[in-house]
Each structure stands twice: as structure tokens, then as C-alpha cells.
Amino acid sequence: MLVGCSNDSADADGKAAAGSHFLQDTGGSARGDFGPPQGEPIQAILTDAPMVPPPVNRDYPAKVIVDLEVVEKEMEISEGVRYTFWTFGGSVPGKFMRIRQGDTVEFHLKNHPDSKMPHNIDLHAVTGPGGGATSSFTAPGHESVFSFKALNQGLYVYHCATAPVGMHVANGMYGLILVEPPEGLPPVDREFYVMQGDFYTVGKYREKGHQVFDMQKAIEENATYVVFNGAEGALVGDNALKAKVGETVRLFVGNGGPNLVSSFHVIGEIFDKVFFEGGTHYQENVQTTLVPAGGSAMTEFRLEAPGTLILVDHSIFRAFNKGALGMLKVEGDEQLAIYSGKEVDNVYLADKAVEEGAPVIAGVAAAQQAGSATREDQIAAGAVLFNGTCSVCHQNNGKGLPGVFPPLADSDFLTAKSQEKVISAVINGISGPITVNGEDYNSVMPPMSNLNDDEIANILTYVYNSWDNKGDVVSPAKVAEVRAGTKRPAGAAH
Ligand SMILES: [Cu+2]
Known about the structure:
The chain is of the alpha/beta class. The chain is built from eleven helices and 23 strands.
């Protein structure tokens, strides 16, 4: 294959000068056209995250029909927090599509009649204007059809590109399409679909009820939530990814953005291979891989030891304070030569360690919504939350650590101060010299404003009713009052 002329012989349009009209082999798309589709048209299998369609397993280019419907619907973004998502196929991220390089895709984009907005689709796997967006503008109750040939292999993001584009993406309109190389990908035991996204709500992180999109926060890139698979907790507890010791795993990782770049990391695992940016080449032995907004990566690893691996965006406040935390639970026999074992579950999980107590908390939360929670209910939920949140410092028995963390057990601070002061201490933290039961402390307790009103009310009710304290009940309404009345430093509000 001949190579094209050097740049200085190109004219103003970038076309090579006359006589050099032969194509340069640039790899990629130049090798991806395997001719017209063969055989019967094939209906694409589409899956919701974290599921991935089966391998294509075909040795010829086909016509593949994709039917995708846009649905605008309200779902939970965090426990008790509702958000109106705009979706490709009914969930966030959108349906995963899997085709073979050289396939011709006949794309049917439908927009549900109940939608309020028009939508379209820009697939990064498309060679052509707008990645399909220019041919797929679809009003509610309508359908658009366009075709494209998948010339390049790779893992590609698709998203809505209807104005205001940022808002459509911020509402969850993105997903992944995998274009397999002609020979397919090497087989692995498990494949999962994980896609990060950032969300912007007028209400604070974990503020309950229906929350609306905040355009200003989106423009400022000040995310309220950063999550995997469309919701905080989408990959936690019962929803965790599952695999076994000895198995090989491939994660198809995407980042819809709209704004934030992900520092994707799995705590407790090293990626044997990362096909960075979703391309053809891989790097080996990687700890953290950067996934651009509107980009992807494929990571592969073998599971050598049992335990819970934790998926995070290692921009770490996002993991612990905005929701970017998932789990891969690995079952199997201890492998003591690789890791000495004995997991202490709450090392990294803090409030996620309350997993076992989750049913208790959920039951009490329901009672609190119905206004029927008793003191005993609050104490029960508070105990679980305390052990996941406060006990790291104040210890499970409330006794603290001498000279470092003051006791909550039989604490004269709790006796002397009003409920408002104590609630405010939890929401805003405490620093500077204080004396508790005759001992001086001069340290810092971080603000716990990520706890919601119910949680703080329950924790404090538990504290007041334990270890010889005075037995008060703290109501969520009281916590809300203190929260609303607290002046906080500029920028700390959300
Ligand atoms: Cu849209």
C-alpha cells in the first residue's frame, strides 16, 4: 500500500494534489468495510445495565436492526429522591448494543407518545454527520429510521444531541455500543456494563422528594450526584455485581458526563488489561483509568481472592459524598497466600456498612414518612446508622478514645446542651477546645451534612437513649429546622 503525499502538496481544501488520489491505509475504518450485508437481517439484542448482550459470534457482515425507544420517566436517583430521567430504552444508562465491525445497522429511534421533548441520537460509532443526530430528530409519538455501516471497531458512547444538548445528556440520555472486531473479543467468564454520569439537582445531595434539574449548577459543573448506572446504590448491596474466585471479568465502562471525567478504579483489584479510551490497544497492570466524558474503557481482570471489591470514581469525594460507588462481590474460598483475609466491612464503606441493617432502616423510613415511627423504631434505625457512621471515632460502646474522641456515653455535653446545639454539632461539625466529662479535647469533628434529617434524628435518638444518657427523642422536623437556620460558609450549601 502506497502512502499519500506530504502535507505541503495539499491544496486549501486539504485534498492531496492531483496524481496522488490513492488512499492511505489508516487502519481503522479503511479496513472495516467488508462489503454489503449478508444473510437475513438480524434483530439486535439490547440489554439494560449491568447486563451485556451475548457475543456476536458471526463471521460475515450482516444487516442489524436496532429498535430503541426514548422514554421520559421518574425514577429514584437516591433512596427517597425522585428525578425525571430521559432514557434510551427506559433506564439509565441506555440499552447496550453489540454488533460486529462491518455490520450495517438499520436504526429505528422511537420517541414515546408521552414524552414532552423531541430527542435524537448521536452514536460515536457512526461515520457521518452528527453521528446520526442529523437524521434522527424525533418528536414525541414519532419514529425515525437511518442506516450506518460500523467501519471502526471499539466501545463507543451514544447520546442524545437535541438542544439544549447538555440538559438531555444530564438527564441520562447516553449508553454504549460495542463494535466487536471481526474475530470477536476473547471469551471471559463475565461481562458487565457500568456507566458513570453526573447529575444536577436544585435540592441538596440526598434531599428527599422529587428533585428538578438545576441548569446553573450544570453550567458550573457543580454536580449534586455522580453515580454509576443511573442511581446511587445501583450497584450496591443486593444490586452488587457478582462473580467467583478464578473467573475472568470484563467491564465495559462508559462515562456519559455531561461534565465530569472519571478516574475509574476498583478498590482491591488491579486491571490486568485496560483498553483505554475504548480503543484497540491495551495497557497492562493498571490501577486507575481515566474515562473521558463521552468516552469509554474496557477493563479486564482475573479474580484471585474473595471479598467485596469497590468500584469508585477515585475523585474520591464523588464516591463517598455524591454516590459514585459500586460493588463487585467475589465469592469463593479464602486465598490466604494472596490476601491474609478477614474483611472488616466498614473500612471503606462507612454508611454503606449499614447494609445488613438496611431493612430496619427502610422500615423505619417508611414509618417516618407515614408519621407513625415510634421511639423504639428511631432507636433501632439509629443504632444501625451510628455503627456505620459515628462509631469509627466515638466507638461502638460510645466511650470514645481517651484524649482523642470524646465519649457520647453519659456525656455531660449531651446533658448540658440543647437539642439544637447537638443537632448543629452533627450537621456542621465541631472544632476547637471542648471539655467533656472533665477531660479537654481540642480536635475536629467533620460536618455530617450528608446525613439526611431522618438519619440524624434517628442517630441522636439512639445516642440519647443509650449508655445512661437522658432519653430524649429527636424529630426529623427539628433537624430540618436547625439545618434551615444554620449559616454555612458560602459554597457549602449544596
Ligand atoms: Cu434528548
